[in-house]
Design goal:
Elements: E1 6-11, E2 18-23, E3 26-32, H1 37-52, E4 62-63, E5 75-76, H2 82-91, E6 100-101, H3 102-108, H4 115-123, E7 136-137, H5 150-160
Parallel strand pairs: 1-4, 3-5, 6-7
Antiparallel strand pairs: 1-2, 2-3
Length: 163
């Protein structure tokens, strides 16, 4: 087995800083500090425990200094259950500037009665923004539910022209 090599960065954006983690050159985690340092760094620690079976101690992310993170193409390494992967891959089909409801997403996955399971998978997306979970809204257009905070979701949707 090859050695594991992770790179953890604090990435600036127009709406706060984000925490990005790479396994070699593949993006495995992206979360917003707007929800709080404890939450985002705790989520990364949980991610490492779940998918790599090790405990992360304290760490200081390096500053991203490799150009504009947001305009670059990054290899992505998705890790989750088979069902989660199907949901996340379906999220990639939602174009910028558009939203879908959890019900519509469940129907697209041919699991119309699995709305709660779909919502749970959307909420466990480890690579926020790149896997656009922010484009999923409630039936009534409610955009407030977002792991990284409703302000982040609203900002992203406005920038993309969905609001």
């Amino acid at each position: 087995m090859a050695d594991l090599e992770f790179h953890i960065y604090k990435v600036p954006s127009e709406y706060g800083e984000w925490l990005a983690a790479f396994d070699q050159d593949e993006l495995i985690f992206l979360g917003s500090y707007n929800a709080g340092k404890k939450l985002v760094e705790g989520d990364l620690a949980d991610f490492f425990k779940t998918h790599y079976a090790f405990k992360v101690g304290s760490f200081v992310p390096a500053k991203w200094n490799q150009g504009n993170f947001w305009t670059q193409k990054h290899k992505i390494k998705l890790q989750g259950t088979e069902f989660q992967m199907k949901v996340w891959l379906e999220l990639l089909k939602i174009p910028a500037g558009k939203t879908v409801t959890y019900s519509e997403l469940a129907k697209k996955l041919r699991r119309p009665s699995a709305v709660r399971a779909v919502a749970s998978a959307v909420g466990k997306n480890p690579i926020s923004y790149w896997i656009p979970c922010h484009r999923v809204v409630g039936k009534n257009g409610n955009t407030l539910k977002y792991h990284w905070g409703p302000e982040v979701k609203e900002y992203l949707l406005k920038v993309e022209g969905a609001l």
